[in-house]
Amino acid sequence: MHWPIPLPATEEPFPLLPNGDRHFLDESEWGYCDTWKAMEELVYQGKCKAIGVSNMSIPYLKFLLGRARIPPAVNQVVV
Q1: Could you give the CA distance from residue 32 to residue 4 in angstroms, rounded to a whole number?
Q2: pTM, entire model
Q3: Using 50, 70 and 90 to split pLDDT, how confident is the model at 31?
Q4: How many alpha carbons lie under 13 Å from residue 22 in its C-beta half-sphere?
């Protein structure tokens, strides 16, 4: 999971609001922990062997670790 920026489910890669602004979901609508839980299900279903994150800061990673059943296999960071 790359740096978590929640977007609404649409056909557009970067959805726009009617005023032309980019639309990001509020964490109350969908959060990166929800995405992680969906990814964990892929492991349980045998569709992948490992899941990880990318460019996640320490506070976000600690928050995720407190809620994850499967810890990230890696935090890929580009420096």
Answers
A1: 6
A2: 0.69
A3: confident
A4: 6
